[in-house]
Design a protein that fits this description.
Layout (H helix, E strand, L loop, with lengths): L1 H31 L54 H10 L3 H7 L11 H4 L10 E7 L4 H14 L5 E8 L9 H6 L7 E5 L6 H10 L5 E5 L3 E3 L4 H10 L3 E10 L6 E2 L4 E5 L5 E5 L15 E2 L8 E4 H6 L13 H11 L3 E13 L8 H18 L4 H7 L12 H10 L4 H7 L2 H4 L6
Parallel strand pairs: 1-2, 1-4, 2-3, 6-12
Antiparallel strand pairs: 4-11, 5-12, 6-7, 8-9, 10-12
Helix pairs in contact: 10-11
Length: about 450
């Protein structure tokens, strides 16, 4: 009896050793090759192209107003090596999709490279601009990444422009996001409002909850693992101040999920294919011509969706989000189409830079896949008109999948007097029509 037990134990230890060795080899190899390539994330944030490694270290532009909470300005320790064999590294990576050892060592406050073009340093913005409500939703976020998001906003946003930060906890389960987070938020007292959902709503409905509590002129949606850069908000607000029907996005820089290195992204525009998968695309050369050069706002057919600014009244006027979409996914393309087809404009503002952690998902999430499919179908049947057949050419298996009642969204489209999807193809994104029937 004892012999079989001992053999089982030996097999178990051997199996564990092999798995640990394979994991070590994977992560060690991944770190060595991180400078060569940017892996695709499981989320909508994949840049789908290498990011230039050279960083433009221009002079920093001084912000006239002194940001609040000076006591948060202690610099963190620099990024260093970490022990790959630490079990906490593996468990943290699979739990959060990022390196928690580095995240912890970096702390909640650090300086990141100013990745703006030099011409942006020469720009000056009016002192009187619309105020902003920053809305950050999170679910089971790594606490240091969340607090870095908050502290970067607080320290790099002029206080007279920052109406509030609305933090929406979408029913997180981790202990450090409960009482411990409450205690740490004391450092942000007076500027952060914390809302805790009593049930899991998903990103889309959580953002609607945050927007309902906002009082600023402009809603700025941020992801919960971001770091804003120098003079990030003023370029966004100044465009909206000129035209409240314009929605704006910053250039989204990459924060490596393994090393937390902050890397500049190229100037790109947001697009999608006939499967409605978002992707970044090159900007036409003529759009960078003229006196503004690489500081010129870029017309974008779509937004990534995680980070953008919109006038609060306009957000309500155009129908906010489709509240019957689940979790997240597809809402970025849906609101992009709605903005363009219903009289608005969507621009990427190169002089505004926000870093985002490209988290690595260890395995496909079936609940998210189901939600994204349903969300895409609601989008397709509401906005694509006869071109929905192009979507089904690429995804024929989705024709019979239920997607709920869209009568309210169809009525919204009629009420707003929105243009056809053909108009969108002709006027905003003709490159998509050129790919018809290609698979």
């Amino acid at each position: 009896m004892r012999k079989p037990i001992i053999q089982c134990l030996l097999c178990g230890f051997l199996t564990f050793g092999i798995v640990e060795a394979l994991l070590f080899r994977y992560f060690h190899h991944n770190v060595k090759n991180k400078q060569k390539t940017i892996r695709e994330s499981a989320s909508i944030w994949s840049l789908e192209k290498d990011v230039p490694q050279q960083i433009n270290h221009g002079s920093l532009q001084k912000i006239d107003d002194e940001p609040a909470f000076e006591h948060l300005k202690s610099y963190s320790k620099p990024i260093g090596n970490f022990n790959h064999s630490n079990p906490e590294f593996y468990s943290g990576f699979f739990k959060y999709g990022l390196n928690i050892l580095i995240s912890r060592s970096v702390g909640i406050r650090r300086d990141v490279p100013d990745t703006r073009d030099k011409i942006c340093h020469q720009k000056r913005y009016p002192h009187r601009l619309p105020t902003a409500s920053i809305i950050i939703c999170f679910h089971n976020e790594e606490i240091n990444a969340l607090l870095r998001t908050l502290s970067s906003v607080v320290n790099l946003t002029p206080s007279h422009l920052l109406e509030e930060i609305i933090l929406v906890d979408d029913m997180s389960e981790f202990d450090d996001l409960k009482e411990e987070l409450d205690q740490k938020l004391e450092d942000f007292r007076g500027v952060v409002k914390l809302i805790r959902n009593k049930r899991r709503e998903g990103l889309i409905r959580a953002r609607l909850i945050g927007a309902a509590h906002a009082s600023g002129d402009v809603l700025v949606f941020l992801d919960s693992h971001c770091e804003v850069n120098k003079v990030w908000l003023e370029p966004l607000l100044s465009v909206i101040a000129k035209d409240p029907h314009t929605v704006v996005c910053p250039i989204i820089d990459v924060i490596d999920e393994m090393t937390l290195e902050y890397k500049p992204s190229p100037i790109v525009r947001g697009t999608f294919n006939w499967m409605l998968q978002f992707k970044w695309d090159n900007v036409f050369s003529y759009e960078m011509e003229g006196p503004e050069g690489p500081a010129k706002p870029i017309r974008s057919p779509s937004m990534a969706g995680g980070i953008f600014a919109i006038h609060r009244h306009y957000f309500k006027e155009i129908g906010q989000y489709d509240k019957d979409m689940d979790l997240w996914g597809g809402e970025n393309v849906e609101i992009s189409l709605r903005i363009w087809m219903c009289g608005g404009q969507l621009f990427i503002i190169p002089c505004s830079r926000v870093g985002h952690i490209t988290r690595k998902s260890p395995e496909p999430n079936l609940a998210v896949t189901k939600a994204v499919t349903r969300n895409y179908l609601r989008l397709v049947h509401t906005w694509l008109d006869e071109y929905k057949e192009q979507f089904f050419l690429h995804r024929p298996g989705l024709r019979s999948i239920p997607y709920g009642n869209i009568s309210e969204r169809v009525e919204l489209r009629k009420r707003l007097g929105c243009k056809s999807f053909q108009w969108y193809l002709d006027t905003v994104f003709p490159e998509l029509e050129a790919t018809m029937d290609s698979r």
